[in-house]
Task: inverse folding
């Protein structure tokens, strides 16, 4: 099962016709029909009811279409993240800190924190 075929399934479900879906995914109608048939054979499910006036998504097809949308979304995110990683726009940032005792860094701060020196306010 390929991401490309999942895209074909989603396009057909959204367009409701092989002609419009084929145009959308830049395939001929026969090529799209073969792609849909291949994924139906692979899954062992009929995803679409075919009629003269178009196609309707079957109950099983609705579940598969929804999952396919999620897979396509994640695939697009993966490609976007890869592009951002290549340009160093995202990645890991590491930081460290050192605990310094107030008395060693600023004796006045230490005395104020202890209440030994009063401040106005």
Result:
């Amino acid at each position: 099962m390929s991401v490309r075929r999942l895209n074909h399934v989603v396009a057909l479900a959204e367009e409701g016709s092989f002609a419009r879906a084929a145009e959308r995914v830049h395939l001929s109608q026969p090529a799209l029909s073969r792609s849909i048939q291949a994924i139906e054979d692979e899954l062992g499910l009929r995803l679409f009811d075919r009629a003269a006036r178009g196609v309707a998504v079957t109950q099983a097809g609705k579940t598969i279409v929804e999952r396919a949308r999620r897979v396509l979304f994640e695939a697009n995110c993966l490609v976007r993240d890869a592009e951002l990683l290549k340009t160093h726009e995202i990645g890991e940032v590491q930081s460290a800190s050192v605990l310094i005792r107030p008395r060693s860094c600023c004796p006045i701060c230490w005395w104020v924190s202890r209440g030994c020196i009063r401040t106005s306010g």
Remarks:
- The domain at 3-86 is CATH 1.10.10.10 (Arc Repressor Mutant, subunit A).
- DSSP finds six helices and two strands in the chain.
- The chain has a mean pLDDT of 87.
